[in-house]
Amino acid sequence: MPTLHVVIPVFNERRTLEPCLDRVVDVTLPDDWSMRLCIIDDHSANDAFEHAQDIATKLAERGVDLDLHRHTQNLGKGAALQTGFDAIMQSGGGDDVIVKKKEGPHANFYQNNTAAVATH
């Protein structure tokens, strides 16, 4: 079964993380595809990271396949992405990888293009 890995770098996303992840998880993939989330916290404030852990626990209880990583210091978005890509490769690689922006002008790219990516 092919897997779509979704790399989501975050930093102090206490207010926006849960709605973002809910939108990602609710996307319908082709029947033979699975999804795995790779969330990388770039050393957010403790309360934001604890909130991310709570959300990750709730999603895992719903059967969502995910990893949550945390940098020991703030290293920037590029390093967070690299951590996500490294985690994917260490887990055996992926069939497709997409980066999800939580907000901004391209935030809906994932929602609008997942089927096209997954059926390449």
Succession of helices and strands: EHEHEHEH
Describe the largest sheet.
Answer: 4 strands, parallel
The secondary structure category is alpha/beta
Overall pLDDT: 83
Low-confidence stretches: 104-120
Radius of gyration over all CA atoms, rounded: 14 Å
Q: How many runs of DSSP E, i.e. beta strands? A: 4
Put simply, the count of helices is 4
Q: Can you characterise this structure?
A:
41% of the residues lie in helices and 22% in strands. The chain is built from 4 helices and 4 strands; from the N terminus they run E-H-E-H-E-H-E-H. The radius of gyration is 14 Å and the shape is globular. The chain starts with a strand and ends with a helix.
Short description:
This protein is α/β, with parallel strands linked by helices and 120 residues long. Helices cover 41% and strands 22% of the residues.
How would the blueprint of this fold be written?
Layout: E1 3-10, H1 17-25, E2 34-41, H2 46-61, E3 65-70, H3 77-90, E4 96-99, H4 109-118
Parallel strand pairs: 1-2, 1-4, 2-3
Short descriptors:
single chain; 120 residues; alpha/beta; four-stranded parallel β-sheet; 4 helices
